[in-house]
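Notes continue from the previous slide.

Worked example: a multi-chain complex. Inputs as given:
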Amino acid sequence: MKRWLAVALVLALSAWAQGVLKVGVVVSATGPAASLGIPERNTFLMLQELLDRQGGVAGRKVQFVILDDASDTTQAVRNTRRLVEEGAVAIVGTTTTPASLGMIPVVAEAKVPMISLAASKDIIHPVDAQRFWVFKTPQTEELMARAIVADMVARGVKTVGYIGFNDAYGEGWARFFEAEAKAKGLQVVANERYNRTDTSVTGQVLRIIARRPDAVLIGASGTPAVLPQRTLKERGYPGLIYQTHGVANPDFLRVGGKDVEGTFLPAGPILVAEQLPSAFPSKRVALDYIQRYEAKYGIGSYSTFGAHAWDAWLILRPALERALKKADPDKDLAAFRAALRDEIEATRNVVATHGVFTFTKENHLGLRFEDAAVMVRVEGGRWRLERTFR
Amino acid sequence: MDATILGFLLLDGLQNGVIYGLLAIAMVLVFAVTRVILVPIGELLMFAPLSLVWLLEGKVPGTLWLALALGLVWAGLARGRGAWGPLLGALGLSALFFLALFLKPLAYVAAVLLVVYLGVATYRVFFQPLREATVLSLLIMAVGLHVAYQGLGLVFFGPEQFRPEPLLKGEVVVGLSWQGVLVLLFALLSVLALYGFFRFSLYGKALLAAAESRLGARLTGISPEEAGMVAFGIASLLAGLSGLLLAPLINAAYFMGFMLGLKGFVAAILGGLASYPVAFLGALLVGFFESFTSFFASAYKEALVFLLLVPALFYQSLRARAVEE
């Protein structure tokens, strides 16, 4: 009797599962990248509620299966395998670059489209046989470095000092920034490294100051980016100080306090959505996202990182609708996944919170520089829009 | 490089060096008395300022629950009359935290006492039952605790850094803040106090005796258990106070303690895990070395600092006779 009941239950469940579109989500909700991963997870929880109310996409229920990778590459890969086996039509994630790189071979082998939420250009470039399946939403270091260099040139900066993390983040920035700076005639006079866990950067800062650069760029993320800036101020450095978009969270302002006043940084337009000119394409979408997020999680709770997840869905949703016309995921999952990939690549002019996305066969980032980066300045403990590049 | 830069680098090296020095002394002390290499000392150091920040914001830090949980286990292990000590300690600590939520200056005391209680409880719960184990087992336990405490630190305090207000604001001269002076003074005082403690007090002498020969100390009526607790107590007191004084200069975060502890360990190794003055001098050497390598070759700083270990270990191994454990 019991066994029959179980069989009946399974049958009923599978019948209910008919027509449900499973979207796999991997984020770093715990571990060192948690401050980025938590808003991303929250965004998908919010989307789930929204879609349940609206009745899904094209009459089908959508279910986000959200797994935490604890900021760990091995765990991210394991999660991806699991999602592939559970029949996810696409995978969104993950938060960090190393873990996203680890997921690429898995999704390529299983032929499942993936939209990464991590920064590095290496995730989607060059578009080879494996990266054929991979897209991403956040701006690359290359794009943001371009914004910084353009701003420096406009301010008459001739010489720059660089200090960055002694890891993939700092190295990536050093590489792209130096290339872009050289191309625009800036001279990089100092190139220093420090560790997230360092308690003092006096040596590096003294070396930079001794070279008298017009500006200093700090290639670091989160609150550990405060230390070099504070040391520069303490040693009386008079020039301009630039940070990267990795510091665009409230904790940076909280820990930095007065020491980070006047900092310049590039950012996605959503960071200063309210201050954008009304003609700026992302303004309306970004304000909409902020309003929804704050209604659920509290005033001032939104971050630019959660918005990357929202953008991934803005791309995925129309692609799903179009792919559903071409293939049926219940009959042939592999064909549907392939069709979905093609439709994601066919994305044209999708206005999102961080810019406007247009993918091509060679370009799986798809952001246009002018729409995806603005320069922001810290003023009175708040982000203030300094300039756009439109 | 000119004189100003040289001066700044020396000052920077000194300020870092004295903290490594205090940690090195604490590690030598704990190792001598209990044969434990106190890897989690960095976590204990960071728990103090992070708990303080939480208290000042009117929140109860998770470290209190950790301390209370360990205290209960401690009381359970002690059984009978011995259980009163940890229970009363836990009660006092909770009361202090409750008061500190309203009376801000008490928060500093509460944060330090919490770390001391946590340190002693750690010894009693995790190391004392292993007292007959080999140095290797004790080291494995210590590393395990370091990983566990760091993970708990992330759960309790989140991934970002925090910066408590400095006790003294402003700068004496360019490059040396009053808080930095405070750190130097504290290091000097601690070294003097430790010297006085071991030289003149009976307790200190008993501790030295226990470190010298565990069996001999036991025969003369010194309890190695108590000696271990005192050693852990002193080590966590040094760590907690250093953490509170350092945090405004370096920012506190759950992951920041390990490197401090590791460099203290390098210094302790330079002193052969046996000599206090050599360990302290070794710590200053590490501090200066670090400060100068960060000026000349910042990308290789960490590698060069830890490379200091190689000649030290080489020398130690040439000098040491083979000793049966």
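Summary box: Chain B touches chain A at residues 1, 5, 8-9, 12, 15-16, 154, 158-163, 171, 174-175, 177, 246, 249-251, 253, 255-256, 258-260, 290-296, 298-299, 301-302 (CB under 8 Å). Chain B is about 75% helix and 0% strand.
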